[in-house]
Design a protein that fits this description.
This protein has about 160 residues and is of the alpha+beta class. About 20% of the residues are buried. β3 and β4 form a beta hairpin. The chain has a 4-stranded antiparallel sheet with strand order 2-1-4-3. The chain has 4 helices and 4 strands. α3 packs antiparallel against α4.
Length: about 160
């Protein structure tokens, strides 16, 4: 078992486009569907796997391009340390004062290490200034408990 790290920052409005953050339905719209529905399905089907947007279900990061992987670790503690480093780097930009609490952030990192050791994924998001959004994810791989089918991006 190992862990992959993912990071995304961008405009909150782009993050809120949930259609591009979920995998397309396995079946396309039926014949005779409204053209805008068919076009939206085509867009999602074409862009979900290649988009850098964080998926709604953390495990789906594994189907995204390898170039989006920010790091890979065998040890949960090392992966959680990466999370801590990212949180420390972005803390000055957190929109909420409560999100800047260093004791709270340390507890998040400790909890992340525990979750990863159990084989679960970790996902954390936070509003930044201007309104932007920060999404951090650590995904357990080989296998992933939530989505065992995807191939490891390292393969």
């Amino acid at each position: 078992m190992h862990h992959h790290a993912y990071l995304w920052t961008g405009p909150k409005a782009r993050f809120d486009d949930e259609a591009l953050r979920r995998p397309p339905h396995p079946d396309p719209p039926p014949a005779g569907s409204r053209p805008e529905l068919v076009e939206r399905y085509r867009l999602v089907a074409a862009e979900f796997r290649t988009s850098d947007l964080p998926p709604l279900e953390t495990a789906y990061w594994l189907v995204k391009p390898r170039s989006l992987v920010r790091g890979t670790w065998d040890e949960a503690k090392e992966a959680a340390a990466w999370l801590g480093e990212q949180l420390a780097q972005y803390t000055p930009r957190f929109a909420s004062e409560a999100d800047r609490d260093t004791a709270r952030l340390a507890r998040l990192v400790d909890a992340a290490a525990e979750r990863l050791r159990s084989g679960a994924d970790v996902s954390y998001g936070c509003y930044l200034d201007r309104p932007s959004y920060l999404s951090l994810a650590l995904v357990t791989c080989s296998p992933n408990l939530a989505l065992p089918e995807p191939v490891c991006p390292c393969a």
